[in-house]
Amino acid sequence: MIDARLIAWLEGKKVRFCVIGGVALAVHGFARYTADVDLLTMETAVLDPAFWSGTVATEIRVGDADDPLAGLVRWPGEPEHDLLVGRGYAMQLAVDTAASSSALGCPVATPLALVLLKLEAGGPQDRSDILSLVEAQRVLGRAAWLSEVPSHLPCLSAEARACWERVEADLRKA
Amino acid sequence: MHRGKATDPTQALATLERMMRAQNGLRLLLMQLPPGSTLADARRVRERIAQEGRRRCRMLERALGIDRD
Q1: Would you tell me which residues 12-51 of chain B have a C-beta closer than 8 angstroms to some C-beta of chain A?
Q2: ipTM of the complex, rounded to two decimals
Q3: Which terminus of chain B, N or C, has fewer Cβ atoms within 10 Å?
Q4: Which chain B residues contact residue A72 at CB under 8 A?
């Protein structure tokens, strides 16, 4: 599912990264359709075209100063892979706390980190993903991490905190 | 909101792999697009719909033709 050449290239260059998005949700028990594979790193060195010399990486985009992302590298294939270059607390935490997945052979963001990332993204699909991830983790008896979310809120944006209020209300109804 | 069915992580990954290979999500969306549209067009529309509801990111939105100004 994840292109082994991309993983090997990043590991060879000592770039710390993790899987996020729909693939990471599935690793934690919630499968929903996704068209691509999303990876996250905090290392801006990957935005230098020279970093990818000799590979198939085709597109590098650099984020604006106030964008939540520092950039993106697109790795073609089926499925397409996006290596997102992050900024901010939630993305740093996702990379720092990612755990290796034997199923994927690379680090995957934890459920807690995925929730913080989705609170920062703040879209309807993101809120739905949080509810479904929590539901899956509760069924699996692994949702103790949910109680840790409030302690991270002061480090998130005002928009993410507002998003959590909506999600929390939905979780109470569930 | 659509709620997914919780499954064992191994099953969930296998399900995801099947869904990604079949590309049914994109194929369903493609049926709503003008004749001659491709799966790449459907992927772009899907990305656009997702991004429009999200926190602003000019880098992503420029490429998707989203202008919130």
Answers
A1: 12-13, 15-17, 19-20, 23-26, 43, 46, 50-51
A2: 0.88
A3: C
A4: 59-60
